[in-house]
Amino acid sequence: MEPQPPAAEPQAVPPAYRLHPPTGVTWATALGGFAAGGILLGFNYWKWRQKAAAATVVAAGFVAFSVVAWLALITPASVPAVVFLVPQLLVGYFVAKWLQGRRFDAHVAAGGGKISSGVGAAIGLGFGALMLGAFAIWFLSTGINPKALLDTQESVDFGHGQHVFYSRGASREAAQDFGEALTRGRYFDGTVATEVWIAGQPGKREISFVGAEGAWDDPVNVDYMHELTEYIVADIGGKPVTVLLLDERLYEKKRCRLDTAWTCSPNP
Length: 268
Known about the structure:
The chain is of the alpha/beta class. The protein contains seven helices and nine strands, in the order E-H-H-H-E-H-H-E-E-H-E-E-H-E-E-E. Strand 8 and strand 9 (262-265) form a beta hairpin. It is rod-shaped and about 120 Å long.
């Protein structure tokens, strides 16, 4: 009987699927937030037939995305965007390595393919654009004056929902003085959420108040605004001062000016 050659060991079959690498997850997170990074991690878990883990990381990504978006909204405009970008980059990378790094390396060692990090970046960019578009649609649906976004970045909180927003050259100290004067004048009385605005510097000061529908055409209300302005004008830099009466969507309805006299346009 002739000797037989030893049986060949079975060759391992490389995985037939490709996975997103940690660098791709990082780029997706940088450009599309934690939600985009979570989607890529979820894709990998799905390929590994771990559907519960996939759903968990995607949900966690959207929760983290919502938290960061909320922080971005309440953070003053003076805070640079890098404050949010760098932590997202680091967290996205290290979470991807912690959750999937070893398994991804084993996948590649077994001959499995990986998806280009550029694809992850494109997914992040696309998701970010989608979220911005959704926000733009929502904002336009509210009918709020877009210019108001620029003037509502910095504020002083006087409690009970009472805020003084300052912009266009007005300082935080001016906003503080304005709010304190409104408190003494009982405009800020702690009973209702109220927002006012102050802009410009003394000599070109501009203050804004929001009124209910038609309040700008009510002579009694316009006279009250005149009296209130006379009361507080010394605390905000003196005359002249421009007073804007806004509707609830922050569009200007009447413009008054206190100098040697009180004049309004259009007239009440």
